[in-house]
Amino acid sequence: MTAGRKNLIVFAVMAISGLFGCAPPAQDRPPLRTVPHVDLQRYLGTWYEIARFPHRFQTGCVETRAVYTLRDDGLIGVHNECRKGSVDGPLKAAEGRARVIDRVTNAKLEVSFFWPFWGDYWIIDLDPDYHWAVVGHPSRKYLWVLCREQTLDAEVLSGIWRRLEQQGYDLSNLIIAQPG
Q1: Confidence of residue 115 (pLDDT cuts 50, 70, 90)
Q2: What DSSP string describes 55-78?
Q3: Bond prior to 24 in cis (omega within 30° of 0)
Q4: Of 111, 117, 149, 177, which is least surrounded by CB within 10 A?
Q5: Exposure of 112 by Cβ count < 10 A (0-12 exposed, 13-18 middle, 19+ buried)?
Q6: Which domains, ranges and CATH numbers included, belong to the chain?
């Protein structure tokens, strides 16, 4: 096991154990902040899931990735896929689309996998080089940490966890992806 992977596991255990602290009650949380600006051309491409909150639609998913492309109609194509149960499990894929809601920052989007339903997709933390990104929801019930590679340095993750807590996220249910 590499040192980076060991560090990732240590931070996963810490996050799951709640050692990073508790989020304030919902009524005491400030509004969720997004990043000041997203260059959508730089954001397009493949992202690997590093961590997420548990959700029914991702139950049993491992090796999750998302691919974002620009569509002819101006929307963003969303292709999500994961392996079910294990790295050798069957591939599960979903096709969707995203639209920019805040054209000033490009940080607030909505995503739809089932018309006519749209869900908030807010970019709340972003590496200046677009190597990693954090996607959240104003309710703080949804969270994804994404990276251009399947692993992310433990020191970078520590900074992300700290900023998420400052934004009022409770990380006690965080699921850390284990790369195959």
Answers
A1: confident
A2: -GGGTTEEEEEEEEEE-TTSSEEE
A3: no
A4: 117
A5: middle
A6: 3-176 (2.40.128.20)
